[in-house]
Amino acid sequence: MSTSTLTYDCPRLLLGGEWRTGRHEERSHVRNPATGELLGELGLASSDDLQLALETTQKAFELWRQVPAHERCARLERGVARMRESTERIATLLTLEQGKPLAEARAECAMAADLIKWYAEEARRVYGRVIPGRLPNSRMDVLKFPVGPVAAFSPWNFPLVLSARKIGGALAAGCSIIVKGAEETPASVAAMVDCLNQELPAGVLQLVYGVPSEVSEILIQSPIIRKVTFTGSVPVGRHLAGMAAQHLKRITLELGGHAPVIICGDADLQRAVNLMVQHKFRNAGQACLAPTRFFVEKRIYGDFVDAFGTTVKALRVGAGTASDTQMGPVANTRRQAAVRDLIERSVAMGARLVAGAAPQEGSFVAPTLLVDVPPNAPVLIEEPFGPVASAVSFDSLEHAIAMANNNPYGLSGYLFTDSAKNILSVSERLEVGSLAINGMGVSVPEAPFGGVKDSGYGSESGIEGMEAFLDTKFTHYVA
Ligand code: NAD
Fold it and tell me: Which pTM value belongs to this model?
């Protein structure tokens, strides 16, 4: 497929230090979600390909772990510079295969570069510590070592950022890594990986696409792999956690969210609405940290519904390649059907549709606001992972916190208030891994990002994210 500026070619697999065509008998079709057009056919990894990836990653690890931290940092920084120079190409590929507006694709590329840059710098600060000896002429050291070859599984919604979190942490820590990217969005990740790979010893970074269940089974069961990291859905996360447990592998799981937003009566309502509409409908709501359940104090609830509804109705929906598009399509057919079904079932249970018209057809789902949602409506329970916001009023903050916590997920949360008392209550008791107060910044390179409850365990980014790729060794010696 070609546009005036770019030819879309499905990438090959980065295996054994070279770009090779996958030898699996099955191939995967990559489509433009805005048009349904076939962009290309993706060759998938066969079991022989995966064996080659495993042998390569083991050898590459022995080499990469010896590379001094300041050189690992320099190489990654040069890769990041290439990524920044290639932003237009990477972002265009991302928009074509994933659907998000070009401005968002560029921002995602910048965020992915920032993440790897931060990890690169952090490579030089993996310190360990010294503990005073218990005996004369003795010392106790706590040392940090790279855990070993990593198998990483990243999804299709933010393919650059969610791969970068894993690649940056692993490589900065001195691990080699095999990334299984999402088969729906292969070219943008391959373009990013190519930028980095040009600065790395062969085999340190490998990229495969395949039949997901085959890839995870082969990689996680292999004794070569020492660490697993996955971003995706709860059912797949549970399955991979089971396999990792069976083989006693460390695993980090980021499994989505259903983020509560508590808006108190004293908040700057228009600011909250402007920020939250932007944040909610970014990437057509296909974001684990998207605000989804709005709990609004009763005295401002009517104003909230009017302001949010008006702003949502004004959003321009269209192909991500059009310059005036503010929200693109829902990325794949299974999600389009799931989101429409969620809206219909919730309306059937009494939720009132203020914006959005269900059911629609095709890959575009209108930005939707459901209000006065009854507590047992599916939209308050199941993660929408689409352009759907729901709103409920509350009388007391206690009640708002209880409703917010009444959900299996616990990834991100948002609070709008000017009251220190409210901030203290919510930050102490809201069951989430990250909380933004009067803003939307729940994920930045230098801070940990991860969830509680069904949202998974472990953190990415920040020093906690780096720690996930390190083993700790205690040494105690007497002279
Ligand atoms: P899904 O369960 O079909 O797949 C989720 C991801 O897991 C995909 O990237 C898929 O390729 C991968 N996968 C599936 N089976 C696998 C296996 N056996 N081994 C390894 N990887 C495997 O869900 P979906 O329809 O792609 O996405 C919808 C749901 O997934 C959403 O409701 C959301 O909860 C979740 N999701 C979350 C995130 C996130 O950022 N946390 C990202 C994407 C999807």
Answer: 0.96
